[in-house]
Amino acid sequence: MSEADGATEQIIEMRLPSRLGYERIAMDTAASLARRMGFTPERIDALRTAIGEAVTNAIEHGNQADAAMKVVVVLTIRTDELIISVADQGRKVLDPAQTFLQPRITDAFQRADKGGWGIWLIRELMDEVEFSFAPGSGNQVRMVVHLERPPVIKP
Amino acid sequence: MQLIIPSVLGYEVVVRDAVASFAQRYGLPPDRIEDVKTVLCEACTNAIEHGNGSDPHRRVRVCCTVDEQSLVIAVCDEGELPPTLPGKPVEWCSMPYPSRRGLGLKLIVALSDEVSIAADPTFGTCIRLVFYRDPRSGIHTS
After folding, report:
1. Chain B within 8 Å of A22 (Cβ-Cβ)?
2. Axis-axis angle for helices A41-57, A22-37 (nearest 10)
3. A53-86 per-position pLDDT tens digit
């Protein structure tokens, strides 16, 4: 990274064991950061939900809840946006088709399992979402939220 | 759980919130969580400013582990010289203005159940902070 890049972008990295509960810590950490970056409370709530879903998916599906496997959350801080990348170690590879599913509430009523909304929620809540599946390196979701500052009123 | 931050003042607050969330879920009492937050801010600020000389390209690593008895937090910088810890119990004395230094380490020692500092060959200087889950269970040797 060049000096110029270093001035405009900073990175926080979190490594979490694949145990349910740790998604809460990722949510709290991202919320703390987003608050300091100046995001609105609504955006912070959206961010919490999206990160919670992404980390839960990584723990339960990608890493099959094997506590020894790591979930890596990388928070990239830029002046006008926050980029969150959540990666697992890919014990189970996510089917790309699943990332475009549109769940239907009527179907959900019929099922005992109320899951299956995570990826849809992430797509609804974040400004940019990208899934990638590299063989051998796990599943990754990259989410971007833009920092919208209130317009400055000029005299 | 591991957290890595750049050596930029302000990020110690994000680490503080992350570890506070961790400590809360571990079941540490609220007043002890306040101590963890204070100690962690001091340790991270030291690592950023002194250990890494506020060079944003140098990293501070914070590693949290738990077992039945305690929460252990290691804060590592990429510096070389481990500071000398004050003895326990900490002797608080009013210091004249020019020599206010060292207050952070005193706070760290006073509020943690165990503290040690070592020069880690891979990371640099590591300060290891231990908080007992139940302080009344007192001294436990492991």
Report:
1. yes
2. 150
3. 999 999 999 999 999 999 999 999 999 999 999 9
